[in-house]
Amino acid sequence: MEISIWTILLASGLTAVVTGLGAFPFLFVKSFSRWWLSIFQAAAAGLMLGASHNLVQEGVHLDPYRTFAGLLLGLALIVLANHFINRRADIDLGELDGGDARKALLVLGIMTAHSFAEGIGVGVSFGGGEKLGLFITAAIAIHNIPEGLAISLVMVPKGTKPWKAALWSIFTSLPQPLMAVPAFLFVVIFQPWLPMGLGLAAGAMIWMVFAELIPDAYEGGASGAEIGIAVTLAFAALLAFQEFVLVF
I need a labelling partner for 40 at 20 to 30 A (CA). Which of 6, 29, 78, 234 fits? Predict the structure, then answer.
Protein backbone atom coordinates (compact mmCIF):
# COMPACT_ATOMS: atom_id res chain seq x y z
CA MET A 1 0.00 0.00 0.00
CA GLU A 2 1.32 3.41 -1.00
CA ILE A 3 1.82 5.82 1.89
CA SER A 4 -0.24 8.99 1.41
CA ILE A 5 -1.09 12.02 3.52
CA TRP A 6 -4.51 10.45 4.18
CA THR A 7 -2.79 7.34 5.57
CA ILE A 8 -0.80 9.51 7.99
CA LEU A 9 -3.90 11.49 9.02
CA LEU A 10 -5.92 8.33 9.62
CA ALA A 11 -3.17 6.64 11.62
CA SER A 12 -2.33 9.68 13.77
CA GLY A 13 -6.02 10.55 14.21
CA LEU A 14 -6.58 7.05 15.57
CA THR A 15 -3.85 7.55 18.18
CA ALA A 16 -5.67 10.69 19.35
CA VAL A 17 -9.13 9.11 19.59
CA VAL A 18 -7.81 6.08 21.50
CA THR A 19 -6.64 8.39 24.31
CA GLY A 20 -10.28 8.85 25.32
CA LEU A 21 -10.52 5.17 26.27
CA GLY A 22 -8.61 6.03 29.45
CA ALA A 23 -11.84 7.41 30.93
CA PHE A 24 -13.75 4.16 30.30
CA PRO A 25 -13.34 2.65 33.83
CA PHE A 26 -15.02 5.69 35.36
CA LEU A 27 -18.28 4.93 33.58
CA PHE A 28 -18.83 2.24 36.22
CA VAL A 29 -17.70 4.15 39.34
CA LYS A 30 -19.91 6.99 40.62
CA SER A 31 -18.36 8.13 43.91
CA PHE A 32 -14.98 8.10 45.64
CA SER A 33 -13.80 8.29 49.24
CA ARG A 34 -10.94 10.56 50.29
CA TRP A 35 -8.69 7.51 50.56
CA TRP A 36 -9.42 6.53 46.97
CA LEU A 37 -8.73 10.09 45.84
CA SER A 38 -5.26 9.73 47.36
CA ILE A 39 -4.70 6.42 45.61
CA PHE A 40 -5.90 7.84 42.28
CA GLN A 41 -3.49 10.78 42.58
CA ALA A 42 -0.66 8.37 43.37
CA ALA A 43 -1.60 6.13 40.43
CA ALA A 44 -1.65 9.14 38.10
CA ALA A 45 1.81 10.04 39.41
CA GLY A 46 3.05 6.52 38.70
CA LEU A 47 1.66 6.56 35.17
CA MET A 48 3.24 9.93 34.44
CA LEU A 49 6.53 8.81 35.95
CA GLY A 50 6.48 5.69 33.76
CA ALA A 51 5.70 7.78 30.68
CA SER A 52 8.58 10.12 31.56
CA HIS A 53 10.97 7.19 31.85
CA ASN A 54 9.86 5.94 28.44
CA LEU A 55 10.28 9.37 26.84
CA VAL A 56 13.76 9.91 28.28
CA GLN A 57 14.85 6.41 27.27
CA GLU A 58 13.69 6.97 23.68
CA GLY A 59 15.16 10.47 23.55
CA VAL A 60 18.58 9.40 24.84
CA HIS A 61 18.66 6.66 22.23
CA LEU A 62 18.18 9.31 19.52
CA ASP A 63 20.32 12.15 20.93
CA PRO A 64 21.24 12.39 24.64
CA TYR A 65 22.35 16.04 24.47
CA ARG A 66 19.12 17.30 22.91
CA THR A 67 17.11 15.15 25.30
CA PHE A 68 18.96 16.70 28.25
CA ALA A 69 18.34 20.19 26.85
CA GLY A 70 14.67 19.29 26.41
CA LEU A 71 14.44 18.14 30.04
CA LEU A 72 15.73 21.48 31.30
CA LEU A 73 13.48 23.40 28.91
CA GLY A 74 10.47 21.36 30.00
CA LEU A 75 11.24 22.07 33.65
CA ALA A 76 11.59 25.80 32.99
CA LEU A 77 8.36 25.98 30.98
CA ILE A 78 6.23 24.09 33.52
CA VAL A 79 7.54 26.22 36.41
CA LEU A 80 6.73 29.38 34.43
CA ALA A 81 3.29 28.03 33.51
CA ASN A 82 2.58 27.16 37.13
CA HIS A 83 3.63 30.66 38.22
CA PHE A 84 1.41 32.25 35.58
CA ILE A 85 -1.62 30.10 36.46
CA ASN A 86 -1.16 30.73 40.20
CA ARG A 87 -1.45 34.47 39.57
CA ARG A 88 -4.96 33.98 38.20
CA ALA A 89 -7.70 33.56 40.79
CA ASP A 90 -10.58 32.92 38.36
CA ILE A 91 -9.53 29.62 36.79
CA ASP A 92 -12.53 27.52 35.77
CA LEU A 93 -12.40 24.23 33.86
CA GLY A 94 -15.86 22.77 33.46
CA GLU A 95 -16.93 21.39 36.83
CA LEU A 96 -13.51 22.19 38.29
CA ASP A 97 -12.39 25.49 39.77
CA GLY A 98 -9.65 26.87 42.00
CA GLY A 99 -6.81 24.50 42.83
CA ASP A 100 -8.45 21.50 41.15
CA ALA A 101 -8.79 23.41 37.88
CA ARG A 102 -5.18 24.61 38.13
CA LYS A 103 -3.82 21.07 38.52
CA ALA A 104 -6.03 19.72 35.75
CA LEU A 105 -4.93 22.55 33.45
CA LEU A 106 -1.25 21.77 34.11
CA VAL A 107 -1.79 18.07 33.40
CA LEU A 108 -3.69 18.85 30.20
CA GLY A 109 -0.95 21.26 29.12
CA ILE A 110 1.79 18.72 29.76
CA MET A 111 -0.02 15.95 27.88
CA THR A 112 -0.70 18.30 24.96
CA ALA A 113 2.99 19.26 24.76
CA HIS A 114 3.84 15.56 24.93
CA SER A 115 1.55 14.90 21.95
CA PHE A 116 3.54 17.24 19.70
CA ALA A 117 6.55 14.95 20.14
CA GLU A 118 4.43 11.84 19.55
CA GLY A 119 2.95 13.34 16.38
CA ILE A 120 6.46 13.99 15.07
CA GLY A 121 7.33 10.42 16.01
CA VAL A 122 4.44 9.03 13.93
CA GLY A 123 5.32 11.16 10.89
CA VAL A 124 9.02 10.41 11.09
CA SER A 125 8.38 6.67 11.44
CA PHE A 126 6.27 6.59 8.25
CA GLY A 127 9.20 8.28 6.54
CA GLY A 128 11.04 5.03 7.22
CA GLY A 129 8.38 2.90 5.54
CA GLU A 130 4.81 1.66 5.98
CA LYS A 131 5.66 -1.28 8.28
CA LEU A 132 7.66 0.86 10.71
CA GLY A 133 5.01 3.60 10.62
CA LEU A 134 2.14 1.23 11.44
CA PHE A 135 4.13 -0.37 14.25
CA ILE A 136 4.99 2.97 15.87
CA THR A 137 1.40 4.17 15.41
CA ALA A 138 0.03 1.07 17.16
CA ALA A 139 2.55 1.42 20.00
CA ILE A 140 1.69 5.11 20.53
CA ALA A 141 -2.05 4.41 20.35
CA ILE A 142 -1.84 1.76 23.07
CA HIS A 143 0.51 3.97 25.06
CA ASN A 144 -2.08 6.79 24.90
CA ILE A 145 -4.70 4.80 26.83
CA PRO A 146 -2.82 4.99 30.16
CA GLU A 147 -2.17 8.67 29.46
CA GLY A 148 -5.92 9.20 29.07
CA LEU A 149 -6.35 7.28 32.31
CA ALA A 150 -3.87 9.58 34.06
CA ILE A 151 -5.86 12.61 32.90
CA SER A 152 -9.12 11.02 34.04
CA LEU A 153 -7.64 10.09 37.42
CA VAL A 154 -6.96 13.77 38.02
CA MET A 155 -10.28 15.10 36.68
CA VAL A 156 -13.10 12.60 37.30
CA PRO A 157 -12.69 12.12 41.07
CA LYS A 158 -12.92 15.92 41.48
CA GLY A 159 -16.25 16.20 39.65
CA THR A 160 -15.64 16.08 35.88
CA LYS A 161 -18.01 13.74 34.04
CA PRO A 162 -16.26 10.72 32.45
CA TRP A 163 -17.36 11.63 28.92
CA LYS A 164 -15.94 15.12 29.36
CA ALA A 165 -12.69 13.67 30.70
CA ALA A 166 -12.57 11.45 27.59
CA LEU A 167 -13.01 14.50 25.34
CA TRP A 168 -10.30 16.40 27.23
CA SER A 169 -8.02 13.38 26.82
CA ILE A 170 -8.64 13.31 23.07
CA PHE A 171 -8.07 17.07 22.94
CA THR A 172 -4.59 16.67 24.43
CA SER A 173 -3.70 14.25 21.61
CA LEU A 174 -4.90 16.44 18.72
CA PRO A 175 -1.33 17.70 18.08
CA GLN A 176 -0.49 14.16 16.94
CA PRO A 177 -2.38 14.35 13.60
CA LEU A 178 -1.43 18.04 13.28
CA MET A 179 2.29 17.27 13.52
CA ALA A 180 2.41 13.85 11.85
CA VAL A 181 1.78 15.07 8.29
CA PRO A 182 4.41 17.86 8.19
CA ALA A 183 6.89 15.56 9.96
CA PHE A 184 6.30 12.93 7.26
CA LEU A 185 6.68 15.48 4.46
CA PHE A 186 9.77 17.10 5.98
CA VAL A 187 11.28 14.22 7.92
CA VAL A 188 14.83 15.56 7.58
CA ILE A 189 13.82 18.86 9.23
CA PHE A 190 11.66 17.45 12.02
CA GLN A 191 13.67 14.40 13.05
CA PRO A 192 16.43 16.33 14.90
CA TRP A 193 13.81 18.03 17.10
CA LEU A 194 12.18 14.80 18.24
CA PRO A 195 14.57 14.05 21.16
CA MET A 196 14.23 17.62 22.46
CA GLY A 197 10.45 17.33 22.34
CA LEU A 198 10.58 14.02 24.20
CA GLY A 199 12.85 15.50 26.87
CA LEU A 200 10.66 18.59 27.21
CA ALA A 201 7.54 16.53 27.93
CA ALA A 202 9.44 14.28 30.35
CA GLY A 203 10.86 17.22 32.31
CA ALA A 204 7.41 18.77 32.71
CA MET A 205 5.89 15.43 33.76
CA ILE A 206 8.54 14.74 36.39
CA TRP A 207 7.98 18.16 37.96
CA MET A 208 4.22 17.58 37.98
CA VAL A 209 4.61 14.22 39.72
CA PHE A 210 6.67 15.52 42.63
CA ALA A 211 5.34 19.08 42.92
CA GLU A 212 1.60 18.39 42.58
CA LEU A 213 0.34 14.82 42.37
CA ILE A 214 2.24 13.12 45.19
CA PRO A 215 1.74 16.02 47.67
CA ASP A 216 -1.99 15.90 46.83
CA ALA A 217 -2.01 12.15 47.45
CA TYR A 218 -0.83 12.70 51.02
CA GLU A 219 -3.75 15.05 51.72
CA GLY A 220 -6.40 12.38 51.19
CA GLY A 221 -5.59 10.13 54.12
CA ALA A 222 -3.57 7.34 52.50
CA SER A 223 -0.34 6.42 54.25
CA GLY A 224 3.10 6.89 52.76
CA ALA A 225 3.41 3.14 52.28
CA GLU A 226 0.07 2.94 50.43
CA ILE A 227 0.98 5.87 48.20
CA GLY A 228 4.36 4.31 47.45
CA ILE A 229 2.67 1.03 46.51
CA ALA A 230 0.20 2.79 44.20
CA VAL A 231 2.94 4.81 42.48
CA THR A 232 5.15 1.76 41.98
CA LEU A 233 2.35 -0.50 40.74
CA ALA A 234 1.14 2.12 38.25
CA PHE A 235 4.71 2.69 37.03
CA ALA A 236 5.27 -1.07 36.65
CA ALA A 237 1.89 -1.59 34.97
CA LEU A 238 2.64 1.05 32.32
CA LEU A 239 6.05 -0.41 31.52
CA ALA A 240 4.61 -3.95 31.40
CA PHE A 241 1.82 -2.72 29.13
CA GLN A 242 4.31 -1.17 26.73
CA GLU A 243 6.52 -4.25 26.78
CA PHE A 244 3.50 -6.41 25.94
CA VAL A 245 2.82 -4.23 22.90
CA LEU A 246 6.42 -4.41 21.75
CA VAL A 247 6.56 -8.19 22.12
CA PHE A 248 3.23 -9.01 20.50
Answer: 78
Close Cβ partners of 202 (under 8 Å, ≥ 6 residues apart): 51, 52, 53, 55, 56, 59, 67, 70, 71, 74
Of the candidates 179, 188, 239, 212, which has an alpha carbon nearest to the alpha carbon of residue 79?
Answer: 212
3-state secondary structure of 93: strand
Torsion angle (degrees, nearest 10) of CA 66, 126, 129, 7: 180
Q: Give the model confidence (pLDDT) of 168-183 as tens digits.
A: 889 888 888 888 888 7
Measured between alpha carbons, how far is 55 from 74 in angstroms, rounded to an integer? 12
Q: Is the pLDDT of residue 17 over 70?
A: yes
Q: Map residue 236 onto helix, strand or coil.
A: helix
Give the residue ranges of DSSP H helices in the chain: 5-18, 34-62, 64-86, 98-127, 130-155, 162-172, 175-185, 187-190, 194-208, 214-218, 224-247
Model pLDDT for residues 77-126, shown as the tens digit of each residue? 888 877 776 666 555 555 555 556 667 777 777 777 777 777 877 877 77
Whether residue 74 contacts residue 200, with contact meaning beta carbons closer than 8 Å, is answered with: yes
**Cα gap 90→106, rounded to integer Å:** 15
Q: What is the DSSP string of 113-144?
A: HHHHHHHHHHHHHHHT-HHHHHHHHHHHHHHH
- Asked if 183 and 122 count as a contact pair (C-beta separation under 8 A), the reply is yes
- Region 36-52: what's the mean pLDDT? 83
The H or E element containing residue 97 is strand 96-97
* pLDDT-based confidence at residue 2 (cuts at 50, 70, 90): low
